[in-house]
Amino acid sequence: DLRKQARQLENELDLKLVSFSKLCTSYSGSRDGRRDRYSSDTTPLLNGSSQDRMFETMAVEIEQLLGKLTGLNDKMAEYTNSAGVPSLNAALMHTLQRHRDILQDYTHEFHKTKANFLAIRERENLLGSVRSFGESYKSGSGVNNRRTELFLKEHEHLRNSDRLIEETISIAMATKENMTSQRGMLKSIQSKMNTLANRFPAVNSLIQRINLRKRRDSLILGGVIGVCTILLLLYAFH
């Protein structure tokens, strides 16, 4: 008798859960349709709606059925633990476990569907609040909105100017540091060259002589080339 009652409750729960799932699935689509029909969002979409009332009613009914099924499972557990049915204890325990699994599956499905429905409703409430805020902002005083926009634009321009000035100052500081480091490097090279020249005067004198000889050789070579060119020109014209 307890098992028969449990199966009846399980069948009823199965139908209720199917209808409950369909209600949650169609909830978002119906809200989209309402948003298309109404041009403003100043009135709440969800408060007092038929779907919300149906959701609350079905949730209460399913919770009551789950409570009844839990009570029947407890009664079947007491019956299987009684001393009058020792020979059928294993089969009854298997049947009881099967009913417990079904109850657990139904409970999990109910809580999952309920959580999804509440998440969709919360999202719709949030979107409705955002749209209402946007509409109230658009329908406000035009002068105030215009002033606010001008102030925001001016503030943005000031921020851009500050950012450009900071970038220019950073580039100038980096250039100054680079030039300072280059000047120090050139001074270091010059000091090293002076040190080498002071340490090796003979080398310095030799370098000067080499340079003088190169200049003399260049002058001699240029004079020879010039004389030869003049002689060739005279020979060609005569």
UniProtKB/TrEMBL annotation:
GO terms for biological process: endoplasmic reticulum to Golgi vesicle-mediated transport; inter-Golgi cisterna vesicle-mediated transport; protein transport; vesicle fusion. Keywords: Golgi apparatus, Membrane, Protein transport, Transmembrane, Transmembrane helix, Transport. The chain crosses the membrane at residues 219-237. It comes from the Eukaryota. The keyword Glycoprotein does not apply. It is a single-pass type IV membrane protein. Pfam families: V-SNARE_C. InterPro entries: Golgi_SNAP_su1. Residues 28-47 are annotated as: Disordered. One of its GO terms (cellular component) is Golgi membrane. Signal peptide: none annotated. GO terms for molecular function: SNAP receptor activity. It is found in: Golgi apparatus membrane. Involved in transport from the ER to the Golgi apparatus as well as in intra-Golgi transport. It belongs to a super-family of proteins called t-SNAREs or soluble NSF (N-ethylmaleimide-sensitive factor) attachment protein receptor. May play a protective role against hydrogen peroxide induced cytotoxicity under glutathione depleted conditions in neuronal cells by regulating the intracellular ROS levels via inhibition of p38 MAPK (MAPK11, MAPK12, MAPK13 and MAPK14). Participates in docking and fusion stage of ER to cis-Golgi transport. PANTHER family: GOLGI SNAP RECEPTOR COMPLEX MEMBER 1, GOS-28 SNARE- RELATED. Belongs to the GOSR1 family. This is Golgi SNAP receptor complex member 1. It comes from Campylorhamphus procurvoides.
